[in-house]
Inverse folding.
């Protein structure tokens, strides 16, 4: 017979005799371990999305539970636990003896990063459809390693303490800033996009092309994006843009539009 409770299993041999009741006695040779989490060794974490993964020292997964404090019944032996919250995680070895009840505290060494963005100083905040990304900065100056992206106006990222690159993107607007996350603290960063809105209408158009307002060394305006509509309404980094409107292959017209930070630039073609 195989008996199990929580993460403990034990096989028990038994014999059934005619006309008799078989009485089975066993013990699990196990202990009870309760895990609790802190952000920096002192401040308790109470986030219900905390994930606890228990594995053997070799890495064989045994079970996962969620919440700020979780008990695991385990067979006596050595193990490791992995605590995860958002993009932050930490592993810690532990051991349990037969009949032992113990609490193991795991320090995440993580903090929270709250991001938001504005179009310009004194201007309105970026809308909910904004994309905010966090990447781990490379100490040697190489390409940052992407960690996570969220789509709303004020996302919160749970991250291990360290240096990161925070990025804001909306249509043609983009801003980046290096940020420092400290364990047990909330870091709030507002990115200034230095952007406005590019609003162009061209009645009857089927294709709208947006190009750089300045010509390159080859004498051509660099293509940025194409919309298949008769109007565009996009957030755009401050600067000059050349907008071309077509109906099929026919050019309706084009205009050079200057976008200013915190302002809306509206034009009609032709």
């Amino acid at each position: 017979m195989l008996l199990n409770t929580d993460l403990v299993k034990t096989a028990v041999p038994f014999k059934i005799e005619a006309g008799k009741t078989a009485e089975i006695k066993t013990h699990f040779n196990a202990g009870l371990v309760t895990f609790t989490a802190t952000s920096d060794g002192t401040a308790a974490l109470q986030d219900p999305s905390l994930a606890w993964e228990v594995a053997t020292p070799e890495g064989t997964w045994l079970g996962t539970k969620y919440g700020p404090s979780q008990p695991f019944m385990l067979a006596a032996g050595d193990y490791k636990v992995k605590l995860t919250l958002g993009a932050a995680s930490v592993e810690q070895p532990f051991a349990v003896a037969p009949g032992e009840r113990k609490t193991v505290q795991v320090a995440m060494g993580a903090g929270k990063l709250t991001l938001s963005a504005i179009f310009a100083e004194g201007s309105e905040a970026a809308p909910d459809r904004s994309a905010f990304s966090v990447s781990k900065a490379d100490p040697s100056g190489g390409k940052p390693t992407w960690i996570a992206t969220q789509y709303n106006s004020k996302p919160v990222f749970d991250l291990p303490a360290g240096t990161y690159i925070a990025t804001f993107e909306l249509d043609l607007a983009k801003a980046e800033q290096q940020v420092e996350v400290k364990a047990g603290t909330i870091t709030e960063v507002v990115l200034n996009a230095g952007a406005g809105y590019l609003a162009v209408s061209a009645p009857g158009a089927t294709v709208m092309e947006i190009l750089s307002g300045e010509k390159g060394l080859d004498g051509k305006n660099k293509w940025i994006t194409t919309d298949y509509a008769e109007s565009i309404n996009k957030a755009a980094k401050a600067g000059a843009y050349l907008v071309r409107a077509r109906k099929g292959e026919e050019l309706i017209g084009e205009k050079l539009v200057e976008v200013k930070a915190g302002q809306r630039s509206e034009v009609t073609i032709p």
The mean pLDDT is 90.
